[in-house]
Amino acid sequence: MTPTAPAAPAELQHGPTVVGVDSSLTATGLASSRGWCNVTGHTDKKNPLTKMPHPARLAAMRLVRDDVLHHIGRPDLAVLETPAPSRSGGGSHERAWLWWELYAHLTDQEIPVALVSTNQRMLYATGKGAASKSAVVDAVARRWPAWITGGDDNAADAVVLMAAGRDWLGHPLTTMPKAHRAAITKATWPDHALTPAPRP
């Protein structure tokens, strides 16, 4: 998916830069408050990453990590979705490696990192702690239409994470209902980020 950067609303040009990250080895969703979203990862279906010999697998995983970090850059705040404990199946070991590599790099670079769970992301997007992928995609299209996801749920998830981060910092992209904003109080926010603006 090619980064899509429509003309960002004027208020985004001067607010804090926040990047949402929904990590995956095959389709990491990324979204920036500067007006773009993207999906990147290992996409060679004929040579799946988890079937590679370990040396080649590690090299491919490092390429994914480096590409994701390149997209993240140096924002004022990075919002990562936490790994779902119940998620199993092939590649769980590799997915965990990618998440911790991203977290380690960001913290080593002293980039503030917020942690938002899957249910908290769903709550912020839809007002419900459990929602289908299509419901989140539809919510993003309605509430944050400047971010063109093309219906990709990974990109949509990243937009929600980014929007939650902007909201916490006191620079919401749009006014959110109280039920949705309950997710903000449940997430884990860094101690050393920009000071959130007081909210009524």
UniProtKB/TrEMBL annotation:
It comes from the Bacteria. InterPro entries: RNaseH-like_sf, RNaseH_sf. This is Uncharacterized protein. It comes from Streptomyces hazeniae.
